[in-house]
Each structure stands twice: as structure tokens, then as C-alpha cells.
Amino acid sequence: MDNDDKLAKHVELVQGVINRMASNSFLLKGWSVTLVVGLFALAASGGNWAYSVLGLLPSLSFWWLDAYYLQQERLFRKLHDAVRRGELESDLYGMNTAKYAAYVPDLLSTAFSK
To answer: Any transmembrane segments, and where (predicted)?
Structure first.
């Protein structure tokens, strides 16, 4: 396997991780809507508004998890760009994104980003 094939495989691996992050984020949003709508339906039908307040907990939890997946996706996009440019020849197949953390907003900033 020559160096170009190895580079292409590394790009493919990183792209697979990015796709999984996007897929997980999408699934989280679906589960969040389902769970919160179910709790609101219980609150409306039973007259117990504690269920609607209880709906805030999963909403905030899923929002935070979505922000986490978005931040991780951004980190892996930075890694993808570095691999694509050939900057990681010494760390072939490396998936460590720690050195790109300075270039990606922190979790709180990501949670409030558009």
C-alpha cells in the first residue's frame, strides 16, 4: 500500500467518524422531540403539569449532548483538513483531536452557536 492509498484510507476513516457524529446528533434530536412531546401530552391529558416541567430535564440533557456531538464533529473536521493537507504523515491513522481544541469553540459556546 503506497502513501497515497494510506492517506486516502485515513481520510476515509476520519470522514466515517464525522458521518457518525452527524448521525448521532440527528438521532438525539429525534429522541428529544419524541420524549418531550410525550411528556407534554401526559401533562395535557392528565392535568398534571409536573410532566411539562419534567420535560425540561431531557430537553436540556439532549441539547447538551447535541452540543457535544457538534463540538466533536468540528474537531474531527479540523483533523480531516490536516489529513487531507498531508500534515499528519508521522501519525498515520492517528485520530487524536486534542491539538485542534484551541481552534474549536468550547462546549458552552458550541451549545449557544447557530
So the answer is: 26-43, 49-70
Determine whether 71 is exposed, middle or buried from the number of CB atoms within 10 Å of its CB (0-12, 13-18, 19+): buried
pTM of the model: 0.85
Distance CA 78, CA 43 (A): 44
What confidence tens digit (pLDDT) does each residue in 60-72 have?
999 999 999 999 9
- Tell me the per-residue pLDDT of 71-83, one tens digit each, with 9 for 90 and over: 999 999 999 999 9
Helix (H) or strand (E) holding 81, with range, is helix 56-84
Question: Residue 59: left if φ>0, alpha if ψ -120 to 50, beta else—which one?
Answer: alpha
92 within 8 A of 9, measured Cβ to Cβ: no
Average pLDDT, the chain: 90
